[in-house]
Amino acid sequence: MRHIVSVLLENEAGALSRVAGLFSARGYNIESLTVAPTEDATMSRMTIVTSGSDEVLEQITKQLNKLVDVVKVVDLSEGEHIERELMLVKLRAVGKDREEMKRMADIFRGRIIDVTDKDYTVELTGTCAKLDAFLKAIDSSAILETVRTGASGIGRGDRVLKV
Amino acid sequence: MQLTGAEIVVRCLQEEGVEHVFGYPGGAVLFIYDELFKQDKVKHILVRHEQGALHAADGYARSTSKVGVALVTSGPGVTNAVTGIATAYTDSIPLVVITGQVPTHAIGEDAFQECDTVGITRPCVKHNFLVRNVEDIAATIKRAFYIASTGRPGPVVVDIPKDVTANKTDFSYPSTVSMRSYNPVTKGHPGQIKKAIQLLATAQRPMIYTGGGVILGDASAELTQLVKTLGFPCTNTLMGLGGYPATDRQFVGMLGMHGTYEANLAMQNCDVLFAIGARFDDRVIGNPKHFFDPKRTIIHVDVDPSSISKRVKVDVPIVGNVRDVLKEFNKQLDAGKTHMDAAALKSWWAQIEEWRGRDCLKYDRASAIIKPQYVVQKLYEITKGDAIVTSDVGQHQMWAAQFYKFVKPRRWINSGGLGTMGFGLPAAIGAQLANPKATVACVTGEASIQMCIQELSTCKQYKLPLKVITLNNRYMGMVRQWQEFFHGNRYAESYMDALPDFVKLAQAYGHVGMRIDKPADVEGALKEAFARKKDLVFMDFITDQTENVYPMVPGGKGLSEMILV
After folding, report:
1. Is B112 an annotated catalytic residue?
2. Catalytic, out of B126, B162, B371, B467
3. Rounded to whole angstroms, how far apart are CA atoms B317 and B313?
4. Tens-digit pLDDT profile for residues B48-57
5. What percent helix, strand, coil does chain A show, rounded to 5?
6. What whole-number distance in Å separates Cα of residue B18 and Cα of residue B21?
7. pLDDT tens-digit profile of B284-325?
8. A66 vs B contacts (CB less than 8 Å)
9. Separation between Cα atoms, residue B165 and residue A66, nearest integer Å
């Protein structure tokens, strides 16, 4: 099953490689991993999208907690949460495709942020599934390039991850 | 007054009460060595290879409850130390390893003797640090000792660039450590302990299984009290030997791949399993699928939450310092409200005694060739079970574990988790320095001993009267045994050809060498060797080449699928 794990960790050199190293050393999956400092500059927040059985997830959480740089770990998928991912897609937009691409971007609430006479660059935010759906809806030969940030997640309402 | 980084390093070690540092000098640590030279509180022990430094610091830590300290230079100094760091990590041994690094301005430029120490050691340390500023040295070393020795212990590497050891700053050693990201649990949950006791009272076929956590947590007195109160059978893992007195009737021997028949069958057939400071590893329970029994309930006490339900699903987890938790168990049991099922226990013990009657450790005592088990048995008798015994890795290690009855903790020192050949001799150096009055014996094989044999020179320099007991069967015995059992007797590369004359080799290093090849001479030779209180005696016992370690649970099998002699 797919899980979104949020990690608060000390914003120190090498902290990211400790987490990445843990996942590769113990054979855990990483679908995506994003990390950036929080409002407290001494701390970073990481969102890891992973998958595995309940036993594997229990071990992932425990092993993450065991890292000396890790302050807190929460499996967001255990409760109500929101996830968002940002994608930039460069689409071929010539001839009749030009109008079609604009329409598709509108349907998916995307924004065209760069335009040339041959292509559009579309900015799209949403769940990973929504971004996948957009890419599926477009003729694959029209997709020139994609770049995705990986998911960021946050708990709903009073589910707050803070020290 | 401002101090240099190197002075600060040495002052920190003094503040921590460090008496011995095991190391080897080199370019990046020269300022630190210069400061060690100028003082006499911290004694430096010069090894002959960095692997030896780590194992010696490790043996020092295992034979005491102190943190072992090693000091090595950058690049190859570090890479040579990695085996020792990984050995300590796998067995959760508290070490602080100070490593030199090239100057900060040269880091990343492929400088001479540069390696990414923090990167290379990351997977085999509890934590590591690169100290970029002289102002951070004292606080970092303080943290290193704190992290190494608390919670589940482990090695911590502190990597210090050369320029940082030359720069100056004010020195004050912090008295406390506070880390928001590191707060190991100590006390176990009283509710869980209560629940566990209720469960123990219902047990028909209980079993107590304890590991290295009891040794590391200095909890053997508490464990002994608990086992006595409960009246249950108790087994120790290879790492846990000495946690419960092996001479006691309730001790059913070591369990696992080479565990006793009675320990393995009791483990497999129990209905309530009480695991304490142990981690259900593959050499202990074999294949978890074969071990699994839906009717068995498991209570597991461990300081490391990630050890619980890792390989085997646990019903009552108790996270905490083993000693504190066992104290709480004893307290609740002393209240006297809980009674164990005496009738059930009686028939369970009758079953265990029947298994014990199988005498699974028997061997040919009338053999005309020296049996390795006999040597260990005589070693036990002559040292009255009171020696610190280190070992290398292989058959001799298993025979030492099976035939030397450890009655106290921190007497049995071996590389259980990583299985590092070459560990025994340097570990004995550390143990002897930490316990100058103790009798220290290294049980080894002719293959293992050659992996760190250069440390015989260290023994000479520091006048360490170790007794090296080599069970020489001219084979990498355990490899040969597996080849005999599982590879059609094809002894690929396991014969130790072109062996040195160990007697002359010992003499060349300035020690006493003895070669013993008749069973009748074993006892006399051991007596003579142990009577030489001031000499290192290297004993080369020529043993039966065909002897195997029994019982044996083949890899991937269950505990009841033992090969018996």
Report:
1. yes
2. B162
3. 10
4. 999 999 999 9
5. 30, 40, 30
6. 7
7. 999 999 999 999 999 999 999 999 999 999 999 999 999 999
8. 304-306
9. 31
